[in-house]
Structure formats: C-alpha cells, structure tokens
Design brief:
Blueprint lengths: L13 H16 L17 H14 L4 H7 L5 H14 L2 H15 L3 H36 L18 E2 L7 H5 L1 H20 L5 H11 E2 L17 H43 L1 E7 L5 E9 L2 H4 L5 H10 L7 H11 L1 H13 L5 H9 L8
Parallel strand pairs: 1-2
Antiparallel strand pairs: 3-4
Helix pairs in contact: 2-4, 4-6, 5-6, 6-14, 8-9, 8-10, 9-13, 10-12, 13-14, 13-15
C-alpha cells in the first residue's frame, strides 16, 4: 500500500494545501460540460457560409424575432448555436449602431427602418442570448457523450405547446356581467401576486412578468404563447415552488369551476322541470347576449315541446358545460414553454429514442412537480 508522504497535515507545505483544496473543490463543483469546447471546425465545411448568410439576411429582415424563430429551424443544433453565438456579437448595440450608420450613409437607409431595427433588437438580443445558452448546453452534452455530432445532423426546432392556464370564467349572472372587468381583474391581480411571492427569491420581476403572461389566460392578454429562456439555478427548489403554485391555483380553480358548472346545471334542470310540468319561465336575450327572465311564464303543450330539447338532450347539454380539470400535466405544459432546462431534457431523450413523444415527456415530467421533502 502506498503511504501518504507526510506524517501529519502540519507537515504539508501551505502551497500544497491550497492546491489540494482548490483541486478538490474544482473536481466537486465543476460542471462536466465546462471542459467541452465547441468549435467551428465541429461543423461540416458547407455549414459555414449558410450560417453567415443567415446572419446577414436576418438584418435585412429587420431583426424580426418571429421570422428568425421560423427560419432557424432549418438548421441543426450546432449550426443554430453558432448562429446565435455570432448573432449576439454582430447584433450588439455598438456593432449594430455602426452598421446602421453605414447603411444610412452608403445606401440611404430610411430613418423609419433604422428605428424599427433598433426597437426590434432589444427583445431580439435577449431571446437569442437565451437560445444560445440552451443550444450550447445541448451541443456540449452531446459532444461529451458521443465525441461528435453525427447523430445530431438534422434540422432542429423546439416544439411549442399552445396552451395557457385559465384565470377567468364566463359571467354567470347579470350582476357578474356588469362587474366582469372588476371580477376578471381581481382574479388576475390576486393570482399574479401569489406567483410573484412564490418565485420572487429565485427570479427577477421581469422574468416573472414574462412567465405570467406566457402561462396564464386572462382577459386582454396581448401576447402569443412563445418559448422563453428563463434560467433556473436550483431545479429541486424550482419544482417545489412549482408545486406550491399548482396547489394554490388548484384551490382557486376548483372553487370557480364549481360555481360556473352549478349555474348552467341549474339552468338545464329548471328547464327540464318546466317542460315536465308544462310551464317554463319566459326568458329573452338582451343586447349583451344574456338571458333575462321577464317574469312571465309560457305554457308548453305536447306540440310545443317538440321545439325544446328532450330530457336526454338537456342532460347532455348540462354535461357539455362541465369544465375540464387542470392538473399537473397542464402546469408541466406552461413550465415547458418558459424554462429551457425542461426542453433540453426532452431533446436529450428524443435523441436517444426518436419515437419518444412530447406528450410522453410532459406526462413524466409532471410527476416530478411535488412538494419539497421535510
């Protein structure tokens, strides 16, 4: 057995102790992918002109993020990484300003075009930076495992899940209708405060604002569902907070869902009862589309009953007003859209098994949303 060369720790030179602790710390905390480098030479030669042509064309398209997101899907993961890497550099404010000034001077670019590109560049750079970081992790992880990119030579496009979690319900009465803006605003504001309170210590207010708008369906939400790149440092802590959010929402949703369904169930049951007795309450639709009772009744004989739903149809109608449950799978969908580490996990599994579906992944991931262990 090889003996330790010093009889006690006091005999070890101070420089050696320092080196020992540094080496131990680095080996313990250094991420495996930090030693992996991505080089342009990892790409086939024909990829290089395509990358820089794409970067040039993106400027001509006014740094339109929607166009960029659509067209970049034609490229492989590694090609996309270098597009984003050099895009962040070439579209940085100093270089972009210099390029725009040259375009104005040499080619007479209009001020309106300059303004449009400058405005687009703010959101564009933020999104491309997030995309770059995510693609870098995917590419480095693949290179570390497989040494090359032979199995990654296919166009790569992140799938988006077009779904939001509901935060408001259809007005149920005239009173609800009259105060609907206050009701909707209260639901949105109340729950938004909860979202911020749950996540504020791990995300910025800016990121939380984007997450909220991207994930919840509230009145006058002006944004389309999109893929965000909000970074998560502590996955375990994040998932336990996600469970807290899910649990809080579930209580709110079940309460509102029960009131909504009860209103329409009562309507169907009252109509069925009236038809059975031969007398129903007269209702008319006003300019707002609400059914209002007039205070009068209508006698319904056998001939007139033919113009009303049968008891079986009314039962079907009552069931049709039932709202779907909102479960962990639904929360997994909105988390997937906003946090890239989840999408990266999916693509890793997809690379291993081409038949693996997003639905399968979302179902599996949803089971990891659970409270922290005490």
């Amino acid at each position: 057995m090889r003996k330790f060369p010093f009889s006690s720790i006091s005999d070890i030179p101070s420089d050696s102790i320092k080196y020992f602790y540094l080496s131990s710390s680095e080996s313990l905390y250094m991420k495996r992918n930090d030693l992996i480098t991505l080089e342009l030479t990892d790409l086939p030669l024909e990829s290089l002109p395509k990358i820089f042509t794409f970067l040039e064309n993106t400027l001509e398209e006014f740094l339109d993020l929607n166009v960029f997101d659509l067209k970049i899907k034609r490229f492989t993961v590694l090609e996309q990484y270098f597009i984003c890497k050099y895009g962040v550099e070439y579209y940085s404010k100093p270089k972009l300003t210099s390029w725009l000034n040259k375009q104005k001077k040499d080619h007479g670019m209009e001020d309106e075009t300059v303004r449009r590109i400058q405005e687009n560049s703010i959101e564009f750079l933020s999104s491309v930076e997030g995309m770059k970081n995510s693609l870098e992790r995917i590419a480095k992880n693949h290179k570390r495992k497989y040494k090359n990119f032979k199995d990654l030579q296919f166009p790569y496009g992140e799938e988006i899940i077009d779904y939001r979690i509901p935060l408001y319900f259809v007005p149920q009465t005239i009173e609800d209708f009259e105060s609907r803006h206050k009701t909707f605003s209260k639901n949105k504001t109340r729950f938004k405060i909860e979202v911020f309170e749950i996540f504020r210590d791990i995300f910025s207010d800016h990121d939380l604002e984007r997450f909220f708008n991207n994930s919840f369906d509230f009145q006058f939400n002006p944004y389309l569902v999109s893929l965000l790149y909000i970074e998560v440092q502590d996955v375990g802590g994040f998932k336990s907070r996600a469970y807290t959010l899910y649990d809080s929402y579930n209580k709110f949703y079940k309460s509102e869902k029960a009131k909504y369904e009860k209103y329409f169930a009562n309507y169907c049951e009252d109509l069925a009862k009236g038809l059975k007795n031969g007398v129903i309450k007269e209702k008319r639709s006003d300019s707002r589309g609400l059914l209002i009772e007039t205070g009068r009744t209508i006698e319904v004989n056998e001939n007139r009953k033919k113009f009303y739903p049968t008891p079986e149809k009314l039962e079907e109608l009552k069931k049709s007003f039932a709202l779907s449950e909102v479960g962990k799978v639904d929360f997994a969908k909105v988390l997937y859209n906003s946090f890239p580490f989840i999408r990266e996990d999916y693509i890793e599994k997809k690379i291993k098994n081409i038949d693996y579906t997003l639905d399968q992944f979302i179902g599996t991931f949803s089971t990891s949303i659970r409270p922290a262990k005490n």
